[in-house]
Amino acid sequence: NLVCRHMTVVAASLLFLSGPLARADEKVAPAAEEKKAGSASDQCVVCHRKQSPALVMEWERSRHAQMEVGCLDCHGADKQDVDAWQHEGATIATLVTPKDCAQCHETEFKQFDRSHHARAGEILASLDNVLADKAAGMPGNNADAVNGCWQCHGAIVKFQRDPEGKILHAANGKPLLDPNTWPNSGIGRLNPDGSKGSCHACHSRHSFEAKLSRSPENCGKCHMGPDHPQIEIYNESKHGIAFHANRDKMALDKDGDWVLGKDYSAAPTCATCHIAGYSNPKGKAQANSHDVGERISWTLRPVISAKLNLVVYEDGFREDYPDSRALPKVGDSVQVSEKVAENEKLVSRTVPRKVKSVITWQERRQNMKGVCFNCHGEAFADNFYKQFDDLVTLYNDKFARPAQQLINDLQADGAISPKAPFEHELQWIFYELWHHEGRRARHGASMMGPDYTHWHGMYEVSKHFYSKFLPAVIETAAKKSPELKDKYEKKIAELLTREEHTWLKGLKTEEVEALRKINKERYNQ
Question: Which portions of the chain are predicted below pLDDT 50?
């Protein structure tokens, strides 16, 4: 466990898109410059070639090995580090974290540290984690969260401790990690050294191949399933079809920069749109960035979607501002709330920060369009965004806002408790309405996946809104009192008088006749 400690590290920040050591010509770890034949790292290899031979083979074919970045360059530690231990005459770190990678990949580290990926561990304070920890977990442990949520989002990495709180060590002196929090390569892992993330979540150790981090399957480990099926949607889309048919033309193994329209043209991948740099006459040139959300103009995660402006503070911290929230001005001092790990617990703190700049949602969208313009005309990109916007607005206005208002009203009337988020069937229905079905519809539209937009998305939203959610609202109100039942029956009756719901009373005569004619012609029925 000495060797290439998670070479997740050095590669992490960089590899995602630019290739294992795409910046190695600019900066090489000082230790790597000194270590030649016969170095301490070579001694690691002698033992680990016997103990973990495949691991050594992976490192030997990596760019790290080519650039003489050895085991101790990533796995070495200072004696005062909380996870340090003595092993075969060297001071070794129990964990390799993004701070270790930052020795060589400082730019990528800073970009990642401000990204949505780095904040993924905040799920520990979310409704999602309540389901894993409480509904699907207990008694005795939180095995569902450990094996499920935390493996993508990350967890607070903890040590095993004695009753007095002192870290326990193995017979060889190595600090013992809590088995509930390690192994864990979650993208938002909260590390003992204060850093966030795990570089090898995307840059699998110890080879750190560029083709892994550039391939859509890499993102699909986490971005899949009933609530955010990006990989399934991508595979359904024209982009995904083109990629899988032309994988050998994608230059996935290219060292250094990987630029659409220069190095490859067959198809975009997740990394193309969200990380890779580009340059074309119609779009403002963008550099490669490990801040995956920089070009996102809608948030598709919450109950109700919002356009996202971005506030950049002088210390480098960035904060999304929904378009419903008043934007501060450059130079303003703002109290910014953030979550951090303290004493192995997730806590909120408020930090005063000064606004350096504001990037509007329109600017973020234009930066994303710059990717589109490599293959598509302006009218194509503009019209795609209109179609996408219209779908999100339809979802918001017809289903999400009315549903959220009814939930809020029931809470205000004491029919449901915010302290018991899944006490009633209504709350389960509402959760899946926006968290599963609504997200699928919105993500489907964002990535040109028509089946996910409709059949897995808006069809499910509408069916369950009318047939499950609204009846459950009345049922929940009735449990409180007959008077409350009457109140919500009237609320829903009034809601259904809106134009978008009047179809429930029946189609127009000409519409019914058209359907009959089609069925007769197509099925002879």
Answer: 1-38
